[in-house]
Amino acid sequence: MVSGVPTRTIDAEPYDFSRPTRLPREQAAEVLRGMDSFARSWVAELSTKLRAECSATVVGVSLLPYEEYIKTLPESAAMILLSVDTVLARGVMQFPLQASLGWAERMLGGAGRRDIPERPFSPIEQALVTKVVSGALATMAYSLGASFPQNVKVDRIEYTPQAAKAAGPLDATIVTSLELTVDDATSLITFALPADALTREPVESSRASEDEPLDLMLAHLAGVPVRVSLQFQPTRVKPEVVLALAEGDLIRMTHSKNRPLNFAVEGQIMAKAAVGASGSQLACVIVDTQETP
Questions:
Q1: Beta 268-278 vs 261-265: how paired, if at all?
Q2: Taken in order 188, 71, 159, 135, is the CA torsion positive or negative?
Q3: Cα-based angle 153, 155, 156 (whole degrees, multiple of 5)
Q4: What is the pLDDT of residues 144-154, one digit of tens each?
Q5: pTM of the entire predicted model
Q6: What string of DSSP letters covers 20-58?
Q7: What is the CATH number for 256?
Q8: pLDDT in the model for residue 292
Q9: How far is the first Cα of the chain from the last one, in angstroms, to the nearest whole number?
Q10: Do residues 69 and 167 share a domain?
Q11: H or E stretch including 82?
């Protein structure tokens, strides 16, 4: 201390290593790579569901206390709270409410208007939005791999972010922001997970048995979405019949109405099934699981 020179007071704050204020560079890069892969895969799925051209860009990954994350959100939004098996806190997938109402309208066959007044989802709209989020979670689990927590499910939907108590105010939360464009309308959506839920594989896991690579491959394959379809037995017709087809024409199928349909996975017939219903949706009932050669 030099005489006559004023001293400067420094306010020191204790640092809690269990609640870091910055995401480690390696982990941030890993999450960013996974979310970039997720964005590319998800928009392909979303384009089919919304019947529109979609694109998504990851604009940032950050580590924030939950209360700071909530301050970045609007007063009203579609807040889909997610249950995570490994922690008590909830994850969040947040959409602009007006935009998500338009997405639901598209899935119901509408034009997806942008001027829909903000309101809570109807039961049908809630089911559609839940389906979109469930598909996103499956794609995200595949893209992020082992770092993504298992068994993440939709818990409930809130419409006031400040009132949605998904986590404690100071709980560390990994937040990914994405710009989603549907046709020419762009919305900012966020995905937030408790930092404790994004665990890493321990070092000891590298000492794997000979069977582990096969187990890991099967675990990944079990989460990959596949296309399933119901098929009639093929009917042969002459080219002249096909070339002469006009609106209103009928083609008689050789498939008997009492005969089960073929249940195919990615074009490969795996079982026999009958047409049924699940609530208000069309469904199929598996009647024979013997693989058809």
A1: antiparallel
A2: positive
A3: 140
A4: 888 888 889 99
A5: 0.61
A6: -SS--HHHHHHHHHHHHHHHHHHHHHHHHHHTS-EEEEE
A7: 2.30.330.10
A8: 47
A9: 89
A10: yes
A11: strand 78-83
